[in-house]
Amino acid sequence: MLYSSIPEKHEFFAKLLERCVSEIVHAVCRDDIEALLMIGAPARGEATIVETPTGFHSLSDIDLICVAKPSTDRSELRLRVGPLMARLNEELAADCAGVDMSFKTHVHLTSPYPLISNYELARSPVCLYGDDSILSSIATVAADEILIADALRFVHNRCFEQLLARPLPEAVPADFSAALSLLYKTTKLALDLVTAFLFARRNTPLGYEARVRLFTDDYLKRDEFAPLAASLEPFLDDLPVWAAFKTSGDLERLVSHFGTSADAEALHVLAVDLWYKYVPYAETLWKSVLGSTLDTDTSRLALPAIAKRFGQLESLPKSIVRTLRMLKPAAAPKGLLSPVGIVRRSFFASPLALAYLTALIMFFGYSENADHEWTRRAIVRYAPFSLPARFRAMNEQEREDALMQKLILFHQAMLLGRHVKED
After folding, report:
1. Residue 171: pLDDT above 70?
2. How many CB atoms lie within 10 A of CB 107?
3. Cα–Cα distance between 186 and 180 in angstroms, integer?
4. If you write DSSP's letter for every residue of 310-338 in order, what string do you get?
């Protein structure tokens, strides 16, 4: 199995995996698990491994699935492995973006929900430990079974991650690895926006380069997408470069394309510049996928009008029930969610949509044409979480910091299902 088409990079990544597998298997009882799988870009031979002044660094994380036996208590297994994963991530920070592990059973793999994540999971998983016959039992998800709304959620997740990576204007020049990490997040944003567009049309090739070609040389050549092509024109030449960088870590081609050098300071300047330049690109494709979800043209709508469209994604009774369920004491960290204005917020949309929309409002607030005053009012009015007692008395920077911390916590607790607590 090749994790990279370049032998030296393959060997580097294989050693990282060997260490992870050895420590994880040692930490868990072998009788509790059936297999340890790896999914994602490295499993497809597309690991983004870049050569830095101090050696190789994998911008792709190590995404693992621990397949637990039916009799195993997965909650207890998570608690047992949790400290190990935290230590591994700390120790491997200089070599890779991180290690993440989810816990599933054989049933989860053989009867997956029709989600983009499960479609991608089944493409090319690798068995690192245990019974590799489990690979043949993983059920595939057909692209035409996936709801278009899941493509919208896919866009939201990526925009949210991009928001969290926002470089502050006064930030000092980053080191080489930090600059690369920011560039990589913009790479994922660009490519996953294309992927979401294709999923919304139920036509998604396997590789990133094939997806980019289909998007630019087919869909955007069609008359119906002429306005979209015109809006994206400044960014289209970048897409093949992002695809090459994502699948092979081709930094030389990337810096050459953008007319800069590969030293740390130049990469930092480029990464910050591209973060802000790609905000309108993200907004354009977000509107396109939202329009596909709602079966309407949202390309010319301003954010206030689009916000109202989110109310169509879920019925009022379902929204209220979902909101009340999330407000149960055991459902979220103490003080995270706000019970105030429950019907108003439910009518606006589901809590899931509220969280994502809040994040997107903040994200697109950095575009030149944003209505910043409306953005601030909308966040305060519709945020599904409680705000600090002195929020209205804070200055603009303090409000932004407070909102960001709440968004991060909400995303981790309610959307990723992680056990977190407020400071």
Report:
1. no
2. 9
3. 10
4. GGGGS-HHHHHHHHHHHTSGGGS-TT-B-
Q: Which amino acid is at 423?
A: D
Q: Which two tokens stand for residue 249?
A: 């870590």
| pLDDT tens profile 40-84 | 888 888 889 998 888 899 999 999 998 888 888 878 888 888 888
Q: Which conformational region is residue 168 in: left (phi greater than 0), alpha (psi within -120 to 50 degrees), or beta?
A: beta
Question: Which of 384, 388, 382, 407 has the alpha carbon at shortest distance from 326?
Answer: 384
CA distances from 109 to 24, 335, 415 (A): 21, 35, 21
- So what's the pLDDT on residue 58? 94
d(CA 296, CA 288): 9
Extract the tokens encoding 47: 């690991």
Residue 5: Cβ within 10 Å count:
12
pLDDT tier at 119 (50, 70, 90 boundaries)? confident
CB 58 within 8 A of CB 38: no
What's the whole-number mean pLDDT along residues 249-259?
Answer: 93
Distance CA 374, CA 305 (A): 11
Measured CA to CA, the distance from residue 384 to residue 346 in angstroms comes to 9
List the Cα angle 325/344/148 in 5-degree steps.
Answer: 70
When pLDDT is averaged across residues 409-414 and rounded to a whole number, the result is 65
- Per the listing, tokens 């993983």 go with 138
Instruction: List Cα–Cα distances, 419 to 254, 321, 355, 412, in angstroms.
Output: 38, 23, 18, 8
CA–CA separation, 224 and 236 (whole Å):
17
Can you point out the beta strands (E) in 9-113?
33-39, 49-52, 55-58, 62-68, 99-105
Distance CA 33, CA 165 (A): 35
pLDDT at 240: 96
Can you say whether residue 125 is alpha, beta or left, with left for phi > 0 and alpha for psi between -120 and 50 degrees? beta
Phi, psi of 91 (to 5 degrees): -75, -30
Per-residue pLDDT band at 341 (split at 50, 70, 90): low
Q: How far apart are CA 166 and CA 155, in angstroms?
A: 17
d(CA 329, CA 333): 8
Which residue type does 250 have?
D
Q: What is the pLDDT of residues 352-361, one digit of tens each?
A: 555 566 666 6
Contact call for residues 28 and 57 (beta carbons, < 8 A)? no
The stretch 185-194 carries a mean pLDDT of 95
Task: Report the C-alpha gap between 149 and 144 in whole angstroms.
Answer: 12
CB 342 within 8 A of CB 323: yes
